[in-house]
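> Could you send the Tryptophan synthase beta chain prediction when you get a chance?

Sure thing. Input:
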Amino acid sequence: MVSEGKFGKFGGMFAPEILVPSLKELDRAFKQFCADEDAKKELEYYLSEFAGRETPLYLCSNLSKEYGCRIYLKREDLVHGGAHKLNNTLGQALLARYMGKTRLIAETGAGQHGIATAMAGATLGMKVDIYMGSVDMARQKLNVFRMKLMGANVIPVDTGSKTLKDAINEAMRDWIANVEDTYYLVGSVVGPHPYPTIVREFQRVIGRETRRQILEKEGKLPDVILACVGGGSNAMGIFYEFLEDDVRLIGVEAAGKGLDTEMHSASCCLGTEGVLHGAYTKILQDEDGQIKPSHSVAAGLDYPAVGPEHVYLQEIGRVEYVAVDDEETLDAFEVLCRKEGILPALESAHALAYALKVAEELEGGVIIVNLSGRGDKDVETVAEMRGYLFER
Ligand SMILES: *Cc1c(COP(=O)(O)O)cnc(C)c1O
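Output:
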């Protein structure tokens, strides 16, 4: 399916000339790493002992009864740090060490990827520098503090809009200048080849476990699997294992304040083709190719593009992409809290919201939702938007 980092016509290596040798070196090293039994064992060790894998595939008995389906959650919210992100940062940090690099750099928007990188760097004893827009730093003070506690250096970016896209530019500049000892740790299935493949491979552990677990529990594959899509890493991680099967796969994007407004992050649903951050993919852009601002109540979905492999899977009709808005997401968040005693991340609540719509039409079916993260980080947002949670 994949040739030279392309997924159909999507993906590729649209990087500054000076970085191409480093990307090719990374591609070679990753293939070696994957074929190395000792390296694989070490990754398995950290995933189980440090990250807490494997995660449960949990049957929501109350929701299942109510909807007349069997609704399972893949509990990535129980991974150390509270989300699937550590699967990837541990994998890439070990790859970096395997390549002889001593320093990790990353960029972060809301801070979640920065925290997961800091965790991996601390446990492996590597130097970590995180680029973060100064506007984002002011908005996410606690996350900045968390990164610092784990020994990461957080570098404020004061150029442009002082947010994620400026942080990405600075991280790229750093990598070009320090490529000898530095590894650029990308946070989702985005960027130039080989990053979309590397991140997918490190997140595939989600799908491998899910497949074994559902066969154990149900004796058959599920009817539907849903996952939220920001850059698309948790979705690729769970979907990939089921691409060849008769299983309906649904990626859920953020419709924000509505697909008919400018305030959404639905790149697969409404984006147009173009190059962003090193890959040919779908982007939220205007007629002049200017990136449009994106919005979601879930910070992790607030990104104006999507991983190229998703666009390919959409084009060939293998995966459906839909969008759920902020209000529907908050409804689903509350449902899971009250009915099942689980606080989902607002990102994951997008997938759950659409899963409940599917459940209404799918009598007696088996549905799996990838619960990509826990919602403790989101309670203030929910309280603010719904008002009542702290009053009762
Ligand atoms: C970062 C994040 C996402 C979005 O990233 P993907 O690469 O699309 O998976 C989704 N859920 C949670 C909990 C996150 O922290």
